[in-house]
Amino acid sequence: MAKSGVDFDDWLALTEAKARYCRFLDSKDWTAFGDLMTDDIELDVSDGTGVPVTNGREQVVAQIRGSIETAVTAHQVHSPEIVLEGDKAQVTWAMQDRVVWSAEQPSISGYGHYHERWRRVGDDWCLAALRLTRLHIDVIPPAADSPGLGDLGAGLPLD
After folding, report:
1. Overall number of domains in the chain
2. What does the pLDDT look like over 20-34, one tens digit per residue?
3. Which of 33, 43, 52, 130 has the fewest CB atoms within 10 Å, i.e. is most exposed?
4. What global pTM score does this model have?
């Protein structure tokens, strides 16, 4: 088995930083979310969206906040591939997200990858660049158009 060449402390710090990224994003803690980024972060979510690349922490947080502020979201990442080069790291994460805007709008479940560049700033790893690529998106009809559970739950024990 080949060694990754990544120091475990750095690997753990990067994975914990990404876990906080997802938690702060989903809990809409915009200040803490922005604190995970470098001042000059570059965000590229153009794949399949036509949204232009965004630069700078304030602009990136505002762009993301504007797209999901009123949505209920759940972001999950796993299977990190980490290449460490001193105080810089290239990381690719498998990702899945669920975004529900309202009962009247379609929602999505998306699958793909985050391609990221992280930079150590002081003792912390900060996100310097993120590019999202999507492999597949499930579009779920609004709740009013979706079939309910009906009798699926009938007879199930409640304790």
Report:
1. 1
2. 999 999 999 999 999
3. 52
4. 0.86
